[in-house]
């Protein structure tokens, strides 16, 4: 299957994370990976979680007012309208959209990582988001979210606000990015991170065990009609994906698994905090990941698909995990950690594929 091929294709470049080659050569290989992801994402047909809604939106609208007066965000609608007027081809829109989603993310990963274990970062990105080969509006919003990470680590607030605004006009969920503004002014040290994580976990467990999730779910769904409609749609997509594969599990079990996944990142990061802090971006990236974890811990018990909101901060995980390879001095131990992280990535990749199997398979080409 093509998705498994892509996983091992990207993995094959991991050898260059251990053997010295110039940054220029690494950049060349990043370009190759990006090109493959863009082509596969751009030439797909009837493949992806929201294929019908996106395709119908493109084919049924004709003039500018038709596009921008829809439920889709303005920048996506304007992009779709422009492509239709110039190329009148849905595949052209997919190629352009895939190019933007993939290239912006890879640019951000390269700049933040400074090429250190960059291929492991890209593998993590593919494992979690399938390399945007089935990109949606939120995929592009997340790409600007990666640029947002770059703005945070470099303390460029104005640029961060601009990129967050652009992301918002591709997908309204990006409004959550405003919660990261305090990170420009405060540094959260290890003790503060531990306290906040434990507090978030206790609150999340309280909501689950006391049955408050039903009340809070009703409160959320009775609010803004547009938001309620979006949440319902996302929930139905997730349930359909699960039912088609038999992978549906109890929400409480799913929550525990999500907590375990975050422990995989947070526990080593906190234990080896001082060593990892030698990387100039580590503390900021961990604070960003903390924010995403709090959103997950507190809001996921209310409605499971709200974990999509944490995605804008969870992408920092792709940059934090490769730093674990730098903890030991011995080369062979670094290699062992690298293998463990690959296994973790494959587990996440397999979970993603199985959760939405009916949408991703079979992969069809446009010709």
The total of beta strands comes to: 0
Uncertain segments = 234-247
DSSP strand content: under 5%
Largest β-sheet summary:
none
Order of H and E elements: HHHHHHHHHHHHHHHHHHH
Number of helices: 19
Please state the CA-atom Rg, rounded to the nearest Å: 20 Å
Task: State the separation between the terminal residues, measured CA to CA.
Answer: 18 Å
pLDDT average, as an integer? 88
Shape: globular
Estimate the helix proportion, in percent.
55-70%
Structural class: mainly alpha
Offer a quick outline of the entry.
The protein contains 19 helices and no strands. It has helices at residues 2-11, 23-42, 51-60, 64-68, 74-86, 90-113, 118-129, 137-153, 157-168, 190-209, 212-221, 225-245, 251-271, 273-276, 282-299, 311-314, 317-320, 331-355, 357-360.
Descriptive account of the structure:
The chain contains 19 helices and no strands. The chain has helices at 2-11, 23-42, 51-60, 64-68, 74-86, 90-113, 118-129, 137-153, 157-168, 190-209, 212-221, 225-245, 251-271, 273-276, 282-299, 311-314, 317-320, 331-355, 357-360. The longest helix is centred in the C-terminal third of the chain and has 25 residues, at 331-355. The two termini are 18 Å apart.
Name the features.
mainly alpha, 69% helix, 19 helices, 367 residues, globular
């Amino acid at each position: 299957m093509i998705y498994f091929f892509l996983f091992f294709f990207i993995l094959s470049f991991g050898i260059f994370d251990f053997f010295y080659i110039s940054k220029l050569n690494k950049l060349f290989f990043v370009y190759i990976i990006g090109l493959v992801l863009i082509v596969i994402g751009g030439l797909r047909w009837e493949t992806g979680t929201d294929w019908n809604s996106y395709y119908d939106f493109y084919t049924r609208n004709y003039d500018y007012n038709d596009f921008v007066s829809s439920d889709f965000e303005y920048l996506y609608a304007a992009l779709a309208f422009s492509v239709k007027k110039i190329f009148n081809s849905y595949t052209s829109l997919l190629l352009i959209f895939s190019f933007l989603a993939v290239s912006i993310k890879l640019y951000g990963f390269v700049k933040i990582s400074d090429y250190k274990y960059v291929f492991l970062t890209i593998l993590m990105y593919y494992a979690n988001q399938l390399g945007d080969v089935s990109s949606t509006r939120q995929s592009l919003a997340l790409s600007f979210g990666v640029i947002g990470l770059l703005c945070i680590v470099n303390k460029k607030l104005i640029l961060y606000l601009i990129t967050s605004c652009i992301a918002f006009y591709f997908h309204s969920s990006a409004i959550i990015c405003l919660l990261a503004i305090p990170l420009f002014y405060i540094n959260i040290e290890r003790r503060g991170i531990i306290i906040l994580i434990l507090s978030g976990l206790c609150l999340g467990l309280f909501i689950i065990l006391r049955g408050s999730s039903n009340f809070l779910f009703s409160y959320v769904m009775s609010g803004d009609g547009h938001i309620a409609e979006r949440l319902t749609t996302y929930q139905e997509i997730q349930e359909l994906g699960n039912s088609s594969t038999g992978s549906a599990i109890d929400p409480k079990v799913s929550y525990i698994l999500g907590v375990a996944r975050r422990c995989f990142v947070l526990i080593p990061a906190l234990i080896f905090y001082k060593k990892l802090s030698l990387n100039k971006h580590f503390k900021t990236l961990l604070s960003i990941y903390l924010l995403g974890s709090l959103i997950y811990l507190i809001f996921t018990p209310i409605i499971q698909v709200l974990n999509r909101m944490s995605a804008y901060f969870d992408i920092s995980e792709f940059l934090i995990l490769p730093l674990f390879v730098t903890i030991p001095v011995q080369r062979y131990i670094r290699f062992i950690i690298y293998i463990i992280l690959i296994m973790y990535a494959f587990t996440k990749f397999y979970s993603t594929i199985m959760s939405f199997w009916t949408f991703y398979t079979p992969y069809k080409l446009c010709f």
